Amino acid sequence: MSILDQVIQTVAETLNVPPTSITQDSSADNTDAWDSLAQVNLMIALEQTFEITLDVEDFMKLNSISSITAFIEDNSEN
């Protein structure tokens, strides 16, 4: 499974929406279930899924599928 697919799956599970409703263009701005509480839960889920540590400063930057995927590709040991 690609990093993009893993990100989409993690976001969908965290937001409790079907994975088919999440695309590479999905973000907090265009996804109703992606509110501030969901953002915090998503950061925790990403840390667990990808075995990474996120700084609080990263939370606000990682507000779209594309930004999350790029961040994980740049910071993952996989």
Which key phrases capture this entry?
78 residues, mainly alpha
Provide a descriptive summary of the structure in words.
Helices cover 58% and strands 0% of the residues. It has 78 residues and is mainly α. α1 packs across α4. The two termini are 12 Å apart.
Pattern of helices and strands? HHHH
Major sheet: none
Separate helix tally: 4
Give the overall form.
Answer: globular
Mean pLDDT over all positions:
94
Poorly predicted runs of 5 or more residues: none
Number of strands: 0
Residues in helices, as a percent range = 55-70%
N- to C-terminal separation?
12 Å
Given helix and strand content, the structural type is: mainly alpha
Strand content: under 5%
Rg, alpha carbons: 11 Å
Strand-helix topology:
Layout: H1 3-15, H2 36-50, H3 56-61, H4 65-75
Helix pairs in contact: 1-2, 1-4
TL;DR of this structure?
The chain has 78 residues and is mostly helical.
